[in-house]
Specification:
Layout lengths: L1 H10 L7 H5 L2 E3 L1 H11 L6 H4 L5 E3 L8 H7 L4 E3 L7 E2 L2 E2 L7 H4 L12 H8 L3 H13 L3
Antiparallel strand pairs: 1-3, 2-3, 4-5
Helix pairs in contact: 1-8, 7-8
């Protein structure tokens, strides 16, 4: 799967799409907040206040966007609850070098992909890389 992913990824310029940044809520772990704050020259404690255009919800084990996310996100840092991601400008990430872990690993087609098949199918509609990998797999396996 990784070979096919790499092949498709080379064919698609993510900066012409940006759907992942437009359609998903961006999750910031504590380390992500620290790295981005350092890059932007702000205090990590003021991260939520720095971006008034994006609603930010703090996860502390008691506050959640919705119950479905609670088990996954309960100890992560912040989530921009507004879309697109506040750091997306002209399909480019303003904090790309220190982008959040969830962004660095998207579309997560590597190890464990079978266990995350529901996630892959959700991403199929949003990410052209996932779409093309999935379609090529269907063709290869005559599905």
């Amino acid at each position: 799967m990784s070979g096919l992913f790499n092949e498709v990824h080379r064919e698609i310029d993510c900066t012409t799409c940006g759907n992942c940044c437009k359609e998903f809520l961006t999750v910031f772990e504590k380390e992500d907040i620290e790295n981005i704050s350092q890059k932007l020259g702000i205090n990590p404690e003021s991260f939520a206040e720095k971006f008034p255009g994006a609603a930010v919800i703090k996860f502390n084990g008691r506050e959640y966007l919705e119950k479905a996310l609670a088990s996954v996100l309960h100890n992560w840092g912040y989530v921009f609850s507004a879309k697109p991601c506040h750091f997306l400008k002209n399909n480019l990430c303003l904090c790309y070098e220190v982008r959040p872990q969830v962004c660095r690993t998207f579309p997560r087609l590597g190890a464990g992909v079978i266990e995350r098949m529901n996630e892959v199918l959700d991403n199929y509609q949003i990410c052209p890389i996932v779409f093309n990998v999935y379609e090529r797999l269907k063709s290869e396996f005559q599905f």
